[in-house]
Amino acid sequence: MSGGKVAVVALGGNALSGPGDDGSIRSMRRHVRRAVEALFGLRQQGYRLVITHGNGPQVGAQLLKNDAGKQIYHIPAYPLDVLVADTQGEIGYLIESEWRNLLREKKRDARVAAQVSMIEVDPSDPAFAHPVKRVGKTYYDEEEVRRLEREKSWQFLQETKNGRTGWRRVVPSPVPQAVVNADALRALLEAGFDIIAGGGGGIPVSRDGRGLLQPVEAVIDKDLTSALMARTLKAGRLIILTDVSQVYLNYGKPGQKAIDRVSVDELEEYIDQGQFGAGNMLPKIRAAMDFARRSGNPAVITDFEGLSREGGTQIWP
């Protein structure tokens, strides 16, 4: 299959949940259905899809279950790599089943596979020395923090939000280096499958001195993994779906301006100006820039509505 017929689509958190949702599977399935309906236009254009997705709320829920299970039933807690694998299966099942149903309704070939994906990271990545990714409950008290630092070597940061101060657990967020399951993904694409893969940034693993895979207690940025998958599979497009139709300059301020088409060099200038929020749009922009620069193909940042009308912000090398 030619690279131009593969599109990697990164579903943001709004694909699985919305304001005021109860976090139930019924609610998630409703959002997933809306997401796959928005993606059908790409299928009509002849693309095979590699769908990635976030899993932050789902992993957060599993971490809370870890805490409750240990305190009440003395069940051993599962590590982050296993929880990422667990939620990849959960969300992958929802996306695959809704995508199959939609394709059947449209009388289209429904060859779909959900894959539990491992992503290799570098143990010497500077992120391991400076963990900043918040995971788990809000908040731990100081007594819990000292115990968990002693028993599990967990790391914490103190923060104040909405007038409340407490401790959050933090883990590294290393840069993804390689898709361990890449050969399987290529084979599925060549066989005509759409794929759900790389959920939650992928299961973080590293190689030991013998080249054997070892689990890593970390969280990988979903959009960076999506860009890596798009390059690895020689995709013709990377589409990052979020909750705004376009990238904006001066967002939420006087003089707000939507960006239709922009080069990587222009975006670098805007980043130097501090135009994009570090915890929101900036990681998506950096992932899009990375893909465009290395592949020579465009990346798009938009929402479901922008995707349906082929709008959004296009990032070109």
How would you characterize the overall build of this protein?
39% of the residues lie in helices and 25% in strands. The strands form 4 sheets. Strands 3-9-2-1-12-16-17-15 form an 8-stranded mixed sheet, with helices on both faces. Strands 8-4-10-11 form a 4-stranded mixed sheet. It has 317 residues and is an alpha/beta fold. The chain is built from 9 helices and 17 strands. A hairpin with a 5-residue loop joins strand 10 and strand 11. The protein folds into 2 domains: 260 residues, Carbamate kinase, CATH 3.40.1160.10; 41 residues, no CATH class.
Task: Please render the helix and strand layout as text.
Layout: E1 6-11, H1 25-44, E2 48-53, H2 56-73, H3 80-105, E3 112-114, E4 118-121, E5 133-140, H4 142-152, E6 155-161, E7 164-171, E8 176-179, H5 182-190, E9 194-196, E10 203-207, E11 213-215, H6 222-232, E12 237-241, E13 247-249, E14 257-259, E15 261-263, H7 264-272, H8 281-295, E16 299-302, H9 304-308, E17 313-316
Parallel strand pairs: 1-2, 1-12, 2-9, 3-9, 4-10, 12-16, 15-17
Antiparallel strand pairs: 4-8, 5-7, 6-7, 10-11, 13-14, 16-17
What would the keywords be for this entry?
four-stranded mixed sheet, alpha/beta, 17 strands, eight-stranded mixed sheet, globular, 317 residues, 39% helix, 2 domains, Carbamate kinase
